[in-house]
Amino acid sequence: MTTETRVAVLPIDPRNLTSVDLRHEAELLLLQGTACEAYHGAVSLPRGGTHAEAVEALYVPGCGRIGIAWGADADWCDADSAEAGIREWSAGLD
Question: What are phi and psi of 73, to 5 degrees?
């Protein structure tokens, strides 16, 4: 059993996001010429197993914001990086 939360992120093209909320936001950002990064992520929680395998994230480095979708709607928060944002979000899953 793991003793710490582990986060793995895989960069993807923002246009390949499957979350409607995040894909729409990415399209708007790209039209405006605003840099954004998209990720698929997996979170391994201390209790074991992998949780939220389908998590997707859209990170906007210029303003330090990240949108994270696991299921329907995206949650947005401040983050220094995509991995840090997903790690902070996953803390609420314990």
Answer: -85, 155
